[in-house]
Specification:
- It is a single chain.
- The chain is α/β, with parallel strands linked by helices and 230 residues long.
- It is built from seven helices and twelve strands.
- Strands 5-4-3-6-7-12-11 form a seven-stranded mixed sheet, with helices on both faces.
- Strand 8 and strand 9 (188-189) form a beta hairpin.
- The chain is globular and about 50 Å long.
- The two termini are 33 Å apart.
- 35% of the residues are buried.
C-alpha cells in the first residue's frame, strides 16, 4: 500500500499544498472526496454516524479511524477509545489531533476486547468479499466483552445497476456489492483494493449463522443503514 490516503490527510492537516482525493469503482465514474469532510465535526456528520456515536458504551474500538474524528468526539465525552487504521498517515494525523490511544494495525491483528466496536463510513467495506464476511464477523465476536456490541454501517447498492438488474447480477460471478475501489491523490494512484457494500439481509443471515444478533437501528437517506450486532 502506497498510503495515498495518509499523504492526503497529512497534507491537509499541516496546511501543505493539497488537492481533494479522487475515488472511483469498477461500476462508477470518478468522484471527488473532499478532504475537509474527513475532518468533520459531530454536527457535520450524517445521522447514521451521530446515532452510532450516541449508542457507544464502555471501552471502544474505532476501526479504520482515519483522521480520528469519531475517536476524538468519544474521547471528549470521557470514553476510553482505541483507534486503529492500516494507514500510517492517518494514524499520525489522529495522534497529532489528540487521539490518545492509536495503533497502526488491521482489524484481524487486534486482540484486545471491547464493549463497543465501531466500523463506520461503510464499515463492511473491509470485509472485501462476501466469502470473507464470516471470518471477519467471527473475529469481531471474539473481541467483544460480555454484553458488548458492534455498530457498523453499509449500503445496498443494487440501485447503481441498470433496470435489468437481476439478469446483470446473474451474469456476474460475484455478489453485486463486491467492488474494485480506486483512489488517487495529486495524480498518484493507490493500489486497487476490494471493497464490500453489504445489504442488510445478507449481513443479518451471516450474523445468525455465527450466533450474533443483528438489528437495524436506522435507515439513512440513500439506501444506507446502521446495524447493531450483539
Amino acid at each position: 500500500m502506497k498510503d495515498v490516503f495518509g499523504k492526503a490527510l497529512l497534507d491537509y492537516y499541516h496546511e501543505n499544498h493539497f488537492e481533494d482525493i479522487v475515488t472511483w469503482t469498477n461500476i462508477s465514474d470518478k468522484d471527488i472526496l473532499p478532504l475537509l469532510y474527513l475532518f468533520r465535526s459531530f454536527s457535520e456528520m450524517p445521522k447514521l454516524e451521530k446515532e452510532a456515536l450516541r449508542l457507544c458504551k464502555g471501552t471502544i474500538l474505532d476501526v479504520g479511524c482515519g483522521s480520528g474524528s469519531h475517536s476524538l468526539w468519544l474521547q471528549n465525552k470521557g470514553f476510553n477509545v482505541k483507534a486503529i487504521d492500516r494507514s500510517r498517515g492517518a494514524i499520525e494525523v489522529a495522534q497529532q489531533r489528540g487521539v490518545l490511544n492509536t495503533e497502526l494495525k488491521s482489524l484481524l491483528d487486534e486482540t484486545d476486547t471491547f464493549d463497543t466496536i465501531l466500523l463506520l463510513m461503510n464499515g463492511t467495506g473491509i470485509f472485501q468479499e462476501v466469502s470473507q464476511v464470516s471470518k471477519y464477523l467471527r473475529h469481531l465476536k471474539s473481541l467483544l466483552r460480555p454484553n458488548g456490541q458492534i455498530l457498523m454501517d453499509s449500503s445496498d447498492i443494487s440501485y447503481m445497476y441498470s433496470d435489468g438488474f437481476e439478469a446483470e447480477i446473474k451474469s456476474e460471478s460475484r455478489y453485486y456489492g463486491e467492488l474494485d475501489y480506486y483512489i488517487s491523490y495529486k495524480g498518484e494512484e493507490e493500489v486497487p483494493m476490494k471493497w464490500l457494500y453489504l445489504d442488510f439481509e445478507t449481513l443479518k443471515t451471516a450474523c445468525l449463522t455465527l450466533g450474533l444478533r443483528c438489528e437495524k437501528v436506522l435507515d439513512g437517506k440513500h439506501f444506507d443503514y446502521l446495524a447493531r450486532l450483539s
